[in-house]
From TrEMBL:
Pfam families: Cyt-b5 (PF00173), FA_desaturase (PF00487). SUPFAM superfamilies: Cytochrome b5-like heme/steroid binding domain. One of its GO terms (cellular component) is membrane. The chain crosses the membrane at residues 111-127, 228-252. This is Cytochrome b5-like heme/steroid binding domain. One of its GO terms (biological process) is unsaturated fatty acid biosynthetic process. Residues 134-253 form the Fatty acid desaturase domain. Gene3D superfamilies: Cytochrome b5-like heme/steroid binding domain (3.10.120.10). The lineage of its organism: Eukaryota, Sar, Alveolata, Ciliophora, Intramacronucleata. The keyword Protease does not apply.
């Protein structure tokens, strides 16, 4: 009988038997993220997808995380390895420091958005006038999606904790499910196989089911935990209203929001496999802004209309011989950084 060497035939080999190691550079120093990977809101999936793209997390991490999260990564074990900070990474860090004061916490504004959504949510649930209920459900679903999107990004510790129950209750969306999906979208925008927002087919009639699909995915993600309770309460509240009114309003809200979300990325550059771009270039070539102004558009488009950058890219594209405005924007940023 041939020897089996050190192979144990009594156990079936599984992929889970092999422990992956995740080591990334942040601010020029390498950290061992292996033990922390499963605790991360985006899950371990993020780490092995990121490892295939780059070993430097500095720009990506700074863009999506709070000061508290920075303390967490600094507390992880260091491997002792260091590397020179890439000029593109240094550029992003410089720009990040220059503009972050433009987005201070504004609790008055947050409270007004909270009041608007909550009032519309309650009227949508209990108003006897069906037209009023229809309009209020649409308002609550669309605007709650945008404000919970901002709060769940975790810049403010209080709002981040608050949105963990407010989002499933009012929007019907689990922040645990959303964080995993949305973080992957931001890190791997328009990368096939990594960005779950990319669809193989865009059929407009299905756009209206956006929020109902998110509701279902959220319940399936959280059904084994106590976090499913506010998701169930979401439907208990809304089912106090006429079911047809609720479903029609959800369809209209989803149809509108899906167009905003898809139009923001769908016609831009996409990638198969490793894209090789630094963070700034990747974000610029995979996204577009909307040229709309005013409070109403801010309310219903969630800040997707960043006019100055969009107009600057448009102007660059219209110059003779300029076919890639995004690259020109990067050049402008470099010049400003070096001035």
């Amino acid at each position: 009988m041939p020897s089996t060497g050190n192979i144990d035939n009594t156990k079936e080999s599984k992929l889970s038997d092999f422990k992956r190691e995740y080591k990334f550079f942040f601010d020029g120093e390498e950290y061992d993220c292996t033990d922390y990977a499963k605790k991360h809101p985006a899950g371990e999936e993020f780490f092995w997808k990121q490892a295939a793209e780059t070993n430097d997390l500095t720009s990506y991490f700074s863009a999506l995380h709070s000061e508290t999260a920075h303390k967490i990564i600094k507390s992880l074990p260091k491997t002792g390895r260091k590397q020179k900070i890439d000029p593109n990474v240094a550029l992003y860090q410089h720009l990040h420091e220059k503009v972050k004061h433009l987005y201070p916490n504004n609790y008055v504004k947050d409270f007004l958005w909270f009041a608007f959504v909550t009032i519309n949510f309650l009227l949508g649930c209990f108003a006897e006038n069906k037209i009023l209920a229809f309009i209020c459900i649409i308002n609550a679903q669309i605007v709650s999606g945008w404000i919970c999107h901002s709060w769940a990004h975790g810049r403010d510790a209080f709002l981040y904790k608050f949105v963990n129950w407010y989002s499933p209750l009012v929007a019907g969306v689990s922040t645990r499910w959303w964080n995993r999906k949305h973080n992957l979208h931001h890190m791997f925008t328009n990368v096939f196989g990594k960005d779950e927002d990319i669809q193989h087919s865009y059929t407009r009639v299905l756009f209206g089911f956006l929020y109902l699909k998110w509701n279902f995915d959220s319940i399936m993600f959280d059904y084994k935990t106590k976090r499913v309770i506010p998701l169930i309460l979401h439907f208990i509240f809304y089912f106090q209203q006429n079911i047809i009114i609720f479903l029609l309003a959800q369809y209209v809200a989803g149809f509108f929001s899906a167009h905003i979300l898809i139009g923001n990325h769908e016609k831009e550059k996409n990638f198969e496999g490793k894209h090789g771009l630094d963070f700034i270039r990747h974000q610029l070539v995979t996204a577009r802004d909307y040229d709309y102004h005013g409070l109403i558009w801010l309310c219903y488009m969630g800040g997707k209309q960043l006019d100055d950058l969009q107009q600057e890219i448009k102007d660059q594209d219209q110059k003779p011989g300029r076919h890639n405005g995004e690259e020109q924007i990067v050049e402008i940023l470099y010049r400003n950084e070096n001035d």
